[in-house]
Amino acid sequence: MTQDFFSEVSGRISFGGLESSDPLTYKVYEPDRLVLGKRMEDHLRIAVCLWHSFNSSGSDVFGSGTFDRPWLESGLDPLAAGRARLDAAFEFIAKLGVPFYCFHDRDMAPEVGTNPLWAGRRPTGLSTTCARLCRRRALAGHRSGPTSPAATATAPEGPP
Fold first, then answer.
1. Residue-range definition of the domain harbouring residue 94
2. Annotated active-site residue in 22, 52, 77, 104
3. Which of 93, 126, 91, 131 minimizes the C-alpha distance to 5?
4. Number of domains comprising the chain
5. Rounded to the nearest 10 degrees, how much is the dihedral formed by the CA atoms of 100, 104, 109, 113?
6. Which of 19, 34, 87, 136 has a CA between 20 and 30 Å from the CA of residue 73?
7. pLDDT digit string (tens) for 70-121?
8. Does 87 participate in catalysis according to the annotation?
9. Is 94 within a domain?
10. What is the pLDDT of residues 139-149, one digit of tens each?
């Protein structure tokens, strides 16, 4: 998936203040505002959780899903769906201007194959895709350089 999933959001979400009528602005969160001598962004350390934000169809006890998540459609190749999910997730993270993300093992190792002993354990390349997207989105507006959380947050490459 190379096209923008959130194309209706034209750029990075910015601070608008309490009086802003734009629903796509932060009302209170102002990353560079000083609070007790530190930037608000340094106090709050906001992150997007990939699993909880992108692996749900929006269903609940009252009915079926309400989210448009093409990577959740049945019959898709799990690796292609995983890459599409990561593309959309990192686009979302960049537009929020959030420097951190977190994930579950299944975000990087979806079900592949039918052997229950190996399901989710084979290297899938999704951690490499994730690292590539971090670097690409870092160049597209996040902080860059060796101290950038977005540029250095990658999936573990294996057991310690």
1. 46-152
2. 104
3. 91
4. 1
5. -150
6. 136
7. 988 888 888 888 889 999 998 999 899 888 888 877 777 776 666 665 555 5
8. no
9. yes
10. 333 343 333 34
